[in-house]
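pinned: reference chain
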Amino acid sequence: MKLDSDTTIIRNGQLVDGTGNPAVPNATVIVTNGKITYAGLSEAAPQAVPDARVIDANGGTIMPGLVEAHFHATYFNILELQDLDIKYPVEYVSLLSAVNTKLALECGYTAARSGGCLFNVDVWLRQAIESDLIPGPRLSTSGREICSAGGLMDWNPEFRKIGMEGLVFIINGVEEARTAVRALVKDGIEWVKTYPTGDAASPDTNDHHTLCMTFEEMDAVVQTAHNHKLKVTGHCRATEGIKNALRAGYDCIEHGTFIDDEGLDLLLERDVPCVPALYFEKASILRGPEFGLPQSVIDGHQETLDGGTDSALRILRAGGRIGLGGDYGFGWNPHGDYAREITFFVNDVGFTPLEAIMCATKTGAEIMGRSDEFGTVEVGKLADLLIVDGDVLNDISLLEDRSQFIAVMQGGVIKAGQLTRTEHTWENATKMG
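pinned: its structure tokens
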């Protein structure tokens, strides 16, 4: 929804700016030419803004747009991992992923970092979004992932004679690791996603305590990626795998499930962020049986949930950085439920609402390498904003309910929310009083 005026005034709401600072009551945010020019107490705001449009926050919350820090655009609410490489061709996967990016934006997520993407579709999604061809969050891309032979994502038995060309690079050794990274460099990705460890989802081949990549392979990935100015992250649950990734120079850790004291020291020393992705584990436990997950897998998810919850809280309380998001796109953990992660971290992990929002905004933008552009409501940043009809600090679950969103703004343009569905929603600026 394009504005006729270059200035928008958002008033009559508490400001939760994403920095972790206390909320500012009765706040005003002013947006000019897509950027924030004022954010603070209403009584200190400029009083004369000719031809401005005004949004009434209705006593609710003005906050940054959310950042999904582990986004799988090409996961289409699958029932099992094998669906990813045999169910649909790239043409249909591309269409499905465009639907998922639109949904993410409607859910208040104005930015996202890809955590792995079939056929490198996220590279082209990013271009389409930035060209205003399709709606979606600002994207950091990762494309196809890298997994060692016999690892979590290498599930096709040899007799099938089928590779994993659309999903991952299967590597054996240092040279193949370098080759995989160089292929990704040519395709224009920003993050190299790897699988150093196993997972409860695949207990028959490797569980979540299993190491899958050698340190030498991980080191080769990092050295090659960093040489090309790319960042590296990895699916790290096993204790030794976490530490190997940190020693190799990984720029982020996905999950960090069974981190020990030595691993925590390594994480803090380099200030490496961690994205636990824990609601997936709870959803697997709660809804897994109805989708046919074996009890051994559900038990593994319970152990993962317990370990990951403890680790995430330890990391945050020790001064580490936690990003929120992860692994949506399974039948029992579908796209559109992203904000359940935030609710879970408040109600089950022990984060305060302000801490959880900071992790889901500021830290997410930091992980994307774009914290100077968005992630907090501060002067000079892009007006990527979420306006909620209610007090999210009192009820964090409001972020799960799209019907409570007055507006989702991206660069000052309303992309979703109540204001896209109703007429006569703008007040005249002269009525501000």
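why pinned: The chain has two domains: 7-65+376-431, 66-368. The first strand starts at residue 7 and ends at 15.
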